[in-house]
Amino acid sequence: MDHATAVSNAKEIADRILAPAARQNDKEGRFSSEAIAALGPAGLLGLMLPAEVGGAALGPRTLASVITTFAEADASAAMVYLMHVCATATIAAARQGATVAPTLRDISAGRHLTTLAFSEAGSRSHFWAPVSRAERNAANVHLTAKKSFVTSAGHAQSYVVSALSPEGKTATDSTLYLVASDTPGLSVAGPWDGLGMRANASAPMILEDCEIAPGLQLTDDGAGFKAMLEVVLPLFNLGTSAVALGLCRAAVAGTASHLNSARFDHLGQTLGESLQTLRAQLATMQIDTDGLAARIDDLVDHLERPRDTTMLRVLESKAAAGEVAIAVTSTAMRVCGGAAFSKHLAIERLFRDAHAGAVMAPTGDVLRDFIGKAILGIPLF
Ligand SMILES: Cc1cc2nc3c(=O)[nH]c(=O)nc-3n(C[C@H](O)[C@H](O)[C@H](O)COP(=O)(O)OP(=O)(O)OC[C@H]3O[C@@H](n4cnc5c(N)ncnc54)[C@H](O)[C@@H]3O)c2cc1C
């Protein structure tokens, strides 16, 4: 599969499955199993995996396009896909000796959805500092943890779980483990009823003395933090930026459609024909959206050809994208007025979904702190 085929497959799924169901799934907080079932045959679950395990071996450019395409139709499904790709990359980067090849082949074959379970009730958005600690018992480890938000909770076949290493000395001495969904002691701890991203099942999960065999330890003891920063963070920040771009494009399209169709019958004009102020706000939305697209292109270029400024771009991208998505969808709410407020349009879902980007860790605030430290030469952690 090449880039164009992947994006066209994503568009077909977005048009056929995501867009028609997005409104109802959002209303009911319903996870779209149909969307996930379609991703496998389309070759998208193993998008970035190497060909040896059946993957499409495509890069960040394709990932960004696929996620943007999904998010234009349904940001919840786009987030589910993004968390899957991030977790898959972590599994693929597993240490020597990890028995992950069957999982990777299942992912490529479209039989396996995975996700990240990093955030904990105790350390909140500081996902790099789990408070749970793995305990070693003979060859195996035992995990007991309260994971506060896990996208695809109860729907994934596996979870990439962080915990402090058994002998870890500092708050970032974490290790990553692959926990199968049928592991005794693993359970979803409550419902997901968020303001936005309502259809992605980001529920809390509990691990109660889950026994993990050595082959399912993904990183060396204490090397979880490195994997979070080097494997997960670039993809996650690129992907959340792409989700934001999809939301912005959908907001521009939805606003334009409303301005072209809603009428002042007493004036014999559409809203767009009648009010220059609305046209100007639509223009600002378009300018901001295209600016975000250019930023994402720049980040893709930095990921394809890493250089000194790559980590800074990774940090900047998500921080900026979260703000742009909130600004563009807020303007859409204002321009579309009562029609948006009364939920006649999809705009209010975009507005609610856009707010998740800034909340998801690393949050916009934390990213700004990191960027400021990086500029001043102060260690990030
Ligand atoms: C829809 C959704 C899906 C999610 N999916 C997953 C998932 O799949 N896996 C997963 O592991 N987690 C997931 N999360 C969790 C997410 O990544 C965050 O950990 C969580 O939302 C943060 O919760 P909090 O606001 O309680 O954090 P808090 O740490 O309490 O943050 C509160 C406020 O303090 C600010 N703040 C915190 N630290 C700093 C700092 N150092 N400097 C400046 N400001 C700071 C934050 O920006 C925020 O505004 C998801 C969250 C959401 C909303």
TrEMBL record:
<dbReference type="InterPro" id="IPR052547">
    <property type="entry name" value="Mito_Isobutyryl-CoADH"/>
</dbReference>
<dbReference type="GO" id="GO:0016627">
    <property type="term" value="F:oxidoreductase activity, acting on the CH-CH group of donors"/>
</dbReference>
<dbReference type="Pfam" id="PF00441">
    <property type="entry name" value="Acyl-CoA_dh_1"/>
</dbReference>
<dbReference type="InterPro" id="IPR013786">
    <property type="entry name" value="AcylCoA_DH/ox_N"/>
</dbReference>
<dbReference type="InterPro" id="IPR009075">
    <property type="entry name" value="AcylCo_DH/oxidase_C"/>
</dbReference>
<feature type="domain" description="Acyl-CoA dehydrogenase/oxidase N-terminal">
    <location>
        <begin position="3"/>
        <end position="92"/>
    </location>
</feature>
<dbReference type="InterPro" id="IPR037069">
    <property type="entry name" value="AcylCoA_DH/ox_N_sf"/>
</dbReference>
<dbReference type="Pfam" id="PF02770">
    <property type="entry name" value="Acyl-CoA_dh_M"/>
</dbReference>
<keyword id="KW-0285">Flavoprotein</keyword>
<comment type="similarity">
    <text>Belongs to the acyl-CoA dehydrogenase family.</text>
</comment>
<dbReference type="InterPro" id="IPR036250">
    <property type="entry name" value="AcylCo_DH-like_C"/>
</dbReference>
<dbReference type="InterPro" id="IPR009100">
    <property type="entry name" value="AcylCoA_DH/oxidase_NM_dom_sf"/>
</dbReference>
<dbReference type="Pfam" id="PF02771">
    <property type="entry name" value="Acyl-CoA_dh_N"/>
</dbReference>
<dbReference type="GO" id="GO:0050660">
    <property type="term" value="F:flavin adenine dinucleotide binding"/>
</dbReference>
<feature type="domain" description="Acyl-CoA oxidase/dehydrogenase middle">
    <location>
        <begin position="116"/>
        <end position="210"/>
    </location>
</feature>
<feature type="domain" description="Acyl-CoA dehydrogenase/oxidase C-terminal">
    <location>
        <begin position="223"/>
        <end position="376"/>
    </location>
</feature>
<dbReference type="InterPro" id="IPR006091">
    <property type="entry name" value="Acyl-CoA_Oxase/DH_mid-dom"/>
</dbReference>
<keyword id="KW-0560">Oxidoreductase</keyword>
<dbReference type="InterPro" id="IPR046373">
    <property type="entry name" value="Acyl-CoA_Oxase/DH_mid-dom_sf"/>
</dbReference>
<keyword id="KW-0274">FAD</keyword>
<protein>
    <recommendedName>
        <fullName>Acyl-CoA dehydrogenase</fullName>
    </recommendedName>
</protein>
